[in-house]
Structures are given as structure tokens and as C-alpha cells.
Amino acid sequence: MVEPRFYPRYAERSLTEALEDSPVVLIQGPRQCGKTTLAQMVCAPKHLPWPRNVATWHHRPASTLAPGRRDYVYVNFDDHDVRAGAQADPMGFVADLPERVILDEIQRVPALFPALKIAVDRRRLPGRFVLTGSTNVLRIPTIQDSLAGRLEMVRLHPLAQFEIEGRSAAGFTGDRTPGFLDTLFGGRFRIRRTERLGKQLTERIVAGGYPAALARPHGRRRASWYRNTLEAQTQRDVPDLARIRALEALPRLLALAAVQTAQLFNASKLAAPFQLTRPTIENYVTLLESVFLLERLPAWHSNRLRRLVKTPKLHIGDTGLAGALLGADTALLAADRPLLGRLLETFVFQELRRQASGHDLPLQFFHFRDRDQVEVDIVIERGALAVAGVEVKAGATVTGADFRGLRKLRAALGDRFAGGAVVYDGEMCTRFGDRLYAVPLRMLWEMPME
Question: For each of the chain's 450 residues, which pLDDT tens digit applies?
């Protein structure tokens, strides 16, 4: 039997803060990304199957909640009998709940939301209900109440690289985020040398960030876990959102999306292998977004620039899932440079999204491209005053030409341009002009706190 692994999660701080003043806290993210473990780690440690291996014990972050606030009762709606009882009498079910409770996979019982609203309005106790959901509940048509003003959402992604390494000293405590985003918006990287990732880069891309997958040996066993999890998710969670006539098409569609990851979204191209219309394919992509398996990255635009492409980019939710769907191992990625480039761009995008989820200030993500094919892979807005850009390169060297898109972005934004980086698999972090830097890939998660 494989021992469970417990990783420090950057979202723990957001969760504990929300529990101090929000009566309902919803942890949202894809199945198997660690939502239940995080909820139990913070609120109900007695329900965790703590590993017997003492070496993994010290990685568990200490919750800031008082001991008396860590005795939540745990209810799982994947249990058929529990779910049936809640669906039959939502008001009675909620009335019988203890004072503090974790309701796992809440999207399976949408009828509970009005009952939760009534319970909160009668007794507004901070941290009373902790919900987890593998579906974006705001997109479930049968949910009649969004709990606006009563609910705070905490977004949980698969593991970021700095979480996998257990780097608690670099960002899990204190008030600051991991160093890369802060340094990027500060526009000032220190010139320094580090090691190339080399072969380790393709290994990290193929491994992905799902805790249960990382507990398996790399290769066939890990890929099998990803495929089986995808099959269960599309068969169980998607029908909660909509009745569709071709559930069997979803894994194939996701595999095609994995081939096209980090490219402009093209519904016609995705629809070509299926006997389905383009609008149907677009609806299916929206469903896969709702269960956090795909993400469309919108195009950035500005009144100062003309002839901009407005089509979003398509990114798969995790590169480990993409590798399993494509049958892509480290050797294949090393041989197929175009595929490596696309998966690497998604890998960097997802790493930054995962870091941004716990940032003190809200960050919005875009891509930039004009009709002359000048582009920046990732554009990040911090409020209305600061914009930064990241270009991704799989090679070990950087030239001035790699900064073409970032220079155009800087010229259009002026003082609003905070900083730009070309991240690459090299050794030197060095300057390439005003607020422009070449940054080794490993510094995305190993950037020291300034």
C-alpha cells in the first residue's frame, strides 16, 4: 500500500483567514488536487490517515486555528446514502448538522444551497460550513442560490513546484508570496548563476501536480492514474452540469486540447475529428473548464495598440494530465521540440497561476499577440496600475530577439509596465535592458525572498 503524502499548501493561509470571518468557505478545484486533505488538515485532523513514516510528518503545516476550532465533523457526498438523504430533505439535513462541518463534494447536492443560506441567516457563525467542490458551483444550473455575501471561495490547484519541494521557508509563512511574482513586479532581478534543469525539466512537466499521481512510480503507473481519474471525472462531474449525448467524446476532446495547449483556441479544429458541430464543441470545452480540466486564457488589449489578436489561448489544466493523454514521456518530449515548447508554456502558466492564487493582491492573466505575430506568452495585471510579462523559451540560450514582444508591451504601457522576463532553461539570470531580464526556469519556484 502506498503511504499518503502530505504537502504544505500555499492556500492554507487563505483558508484560515476566510474561516475567521466568513460563515461559508468553499474550496474549489479539480478532483484529487488535495481539497479534502487541506480541509481536514486545517479543520479536522482526526480524519486524516496520517502517514506512519515520520519523515513525512514534519511537512504538515501547523494550522493557525485555535485547537477548539479544529474538531469539524466530516460529511462526504460521494457516499450514495448520505447524498440520497440530503437530496430527500435538504432543510432537515442541514438542521441536523453539527455546529461546524466539512461538506465534501457539495456540487453533488445543489439543493442544499438554499438550506445553507437559511441556516447562515439564522445563525451567522464564522467558519460554520466548509464546503469542497470539484465543479465551479457558479456554473451549475440547478443551484438556486450563490450564497452571495455569505460565502468566500478559496481556489485550490494541483501542486505548484514550490509546494512539491516543501519549501515552507520560501513562502508558506509570513505575509509575502513566493519570490518570483514579487520580483517580476518589482522589475529588478539580481544577476546570479544557477543550475540548468536539463533532463529534470521534462520530468517535472510529465509528472504534473496531482498528489496521488506523484505518489506512484513515474511512467506507466502514473499515466494510468491520470487516465483513470480523467475517466471518472468526466463520467461523474460533467453530468452534474449538463446532460450531454456524447460523454465518451470528452476524453478524446481533452486529448486534442492537450495537443493544442498554449495555442489560440480554434473550435473548428477541435471539432474536425468528431461528428459534432462547432457550437457543441464550444459547449463541451466550457464544461471541461467548469471541472477545471481546461482553461481559456483571454487576450490582453490596450487602446494604445492596434491590430491585436482577440482570440483566447487554450491551456490544459495540468501537464501531467496532458502527458498521460498524449502518451508523452521524457524521451518523446526531448525529441519533439514543438510539443515540448507548448507543454512548457502551459507548465509555466500553471505554475504562475498556482502561485498567484495565494497572492495578497488579485492578479489577472492574459496573453498578448498582434497581427504581425509579435507576442508575449503570459501577461499579468496587478490591479489597474501595473502590468508584467513573461515569455517562455525551452532553449538554454537567450538573445535580444526573444524580448521583441516584451519591448513592444513596455513601449505601449510606459510607467505601467512593471517588468518582463524571458524564462528559459539556462544558468544566468541577467539584464537585457530597462526592466527586462532573462531568468532561469528553476527560479520560478526557487527565487529567494528579497
Answer: 445 567 889 899 999 999 999 999 999 999 999 999 999 999 988 877 654 443 343 444 445 555 556 789 999 999 999 999 999 999 999 999 999 999 999 999 999 999 999 999 999 999 999 999 999 888 887 777 778 889 999 999 999 998 998 744 444 443 445 789 999 999 889 999 999 999 999 999 999 999 999 999 988 999 999 999 998 888 888 877 877 777 778 889 999 999 999 999 999 999 988 888 898 899 999 999 999 999 999 999 876 677 788 999 999 999 999 999 999 999 999 999 999 999 999 999 999 999 998 887 889 999 999 988 999 999 999 988 899 999 999 999 999 999 999 999 999 999 999 999 999 999 999 999 999 999 999 999 987 555
Domain match, 399 and 436 both: yes
Q: Which has the closest alpha carbon to 106: 128, 71, 75, 148?
A: 75
Neighbour tally for 45: CB within 10 Å: 14
Q: Cα(163)–Cα(165) distance, rounded to whole angstroms?
A: 5
| Boundaries of domain holding 423 | 162-446
- 280 in the same domain as 391: yes
Residue 189 forms part of a structural domain: yes
Q: With the C-alpha atoms ordered 435, 440, 444, 448, is the resulting torsion angle positive or negative?
A: negative
Instruction: Give the Cα separation of 157 and 329 in Å (integer).
Output: 23
Say what the pTM is. 0.91
What is the CATH classification number for the domain harbouring 102?
Answer: 3.40.50
Asked if 225 and 303 sit in the same domain, the reply is yes
Which of 156, 186, 221 finishes a domain? Answer: 156
Residues 332, 184 within the same domain: yes
Q: Is 411 exposed, middle or buried (0-12, 13-18, 19+ CB in 10 A)?
A: exposed
Give the Cα separation of 426 and 357 in Å (integer): 27
Q: Which residue has the cell 528553476?
A: 442
Domain end position, chosen among 135, 156, 177: 156
C-alpha 65/C-alpha 43 separation (Å) is 8
Is 341 exposed, middle or buried (CB count within 10 Å of its CB: 0-12, 13-18, 19+)? Answer: middle
The total domain count for the chain is: 2
Query: What's 382's DSSP letter?
Result: E
- For the chain, the straight-line distance linking the first and the last C-alpha, in angstroms and rounded, comes to 42
